[in-house]
Design a protein that fits this description.
By secondary structure, the chain is an all-alpha fold. The chain contains two helices and no strands. The longest helix is centred in the middle third of the chain and has 29 residues. It starts with 12 loop residues before the first helix and ends in a 42-residue tail after the last helix.
Length: 91
């Protein structure tokens, strides 16, 4: 999923001055969170590009990320209920 950057609407100095302190803190928190997530997405994209040919990663790890591990028992499933059905109790 490639999303193009969106230009955020500008808040004028007058509008900012009229905002409550709680709204200002919320906006600052959200902007910081978005910036942090954008950086994390960038790091994860770089990790996806790496393989044994372009990193110090051993070749045996190249295919490991593509294997699907199937478990006979779903973690957290109710022991009394049906296998793989979380939260269903059979009396």
């Amino acid at each position: 999923m490639n999303l193009e950057p969106v230009n955020a609407p500008e808040i004028s100095a007058e509008e900012w001055a009229q905002m409550s302190p709680n709204v200002k803190r919320l906006l600052e928190y959200l902007v910081q969170g978005v910036s942090r997530l954008e950086a994390e997405v960038g790091n994860l994209r770089e990790q996806l590009k790496r393989n044994s040919g372009n990193s110090s990663q051993p070749a045996c790890r190249d295919e490991a990320k593509h294997k699907v591990v199937k478990s006979g028992h779903q973690e957290g499933a109710n022991e009394v209920g049906k296998k793989g059905r979380v939260g269903i109790k059979v009396n």
